[in-house]
């Protein structure tokens, strides 16, 4: 998995927790030697009650997001291939309305970035530690249902849920999840941001098991700043993890 030249996980300042201009991301990617850059900011969600998440592209900024990057794709076409995608939460009740909303924008791809379990409420978030195996089981079920739609290019940080319970239970539930996911042959992302910030993910045990089940992996920069695209140290650590776990490079084609 050496010589990383493609990245499909890039955010913009529109999500409210990233910095830098769209152009700065492109220029950093070119400087870093990427041949392909995919933008996949947190997807706008048309909640029926009018709720706007504080961590994703607002509905009113969706056109600006697609339009800005489309212009940069044209301007930099001789230097780098640029794709316009979205990182999406899969909430079953909301997914049809989401697909209807983005249809006119025609994104090049969607990646699954599940941070909540079925619903966007604090108790269903993945970052607070939990020892409840049922929450981990439900998270995995949520991901499986999302993948079954056929809408996603790959699964970002599938090991994001902060489970701190019994390790044997973690292995049992993760094995069951990977076995069920295996027939879909969908790549899984080793997340550079998690590696850089020493979060609970990338979780070595998860990737050891993923290697056993023959999954392919993609390294996602999860860039929230232009400088993140230049982070060779964390990328090298992700590559080393993939190699140690026997994971093959995913051949991503759009």
Q: How would you describe this protein?
A:
The chain has 254 residues and is an alpha/beta fold. The protein has one domain (6-249): TIM Barrel (Alpha-Beta Barrel), CATH 3.20.20.140. It is 36% helix and 13% strand. It is built from eight helices and seven strands; from the N terminus they run E-H-E-H-E-H-E-H-H-E-H-H-E-H-E. The chain has helices at residues 22-32, 62-75, 95-102, 133-148, 167-181, 192-196, 204-212, 232-244, and strands spanning 6-7, 36-42, 81-88, 109-112, 188-191, 216-220, 248-249. The strands form two sheets. The chain has a four-stranded parallel sheet with strand order 1-2-3-4. It has a three-stranded parallel sheet with strand order 5-6-7. Strand 2, helix 2 and strand 3 form a beta-alpha-beta unit. Helix 4 runs parallel beside helix 5 and helix 5 crosses helix 7 (204-212). The chain is globular, with a radius of gyration of 17 Å.
Task: Give the helix/strand layout.
Layout: E1 6-7, H1 22-32, E2 36-42, H2 62-75, E3 81-88, H3 95-102, E4 109-112, H4 133-148, H5 167-181, E5 188-191, H6 192-196, H7 204-212, E6 216-220, H8 232-244, E7 248-249
Parallel strand pairs: 1-2, 2-3, 3-4, 5-6, 6-7
Which labels suit this protein?
single chain; 254 residues; alpha/beta; TIM Barrel; 8 helices; 13% strand; globular
Summary of the model, kept short:
The protein has 254 residues and is an alpha/beta fold. The chain has helices spanning 22-32, 62-75, 95-102, 133-148, 167-181, 192-196, 204-212, 232-244, and strands spanning 6-7, 36-42, 81-88, 109-112, 188-191, 216-220, 248-249.
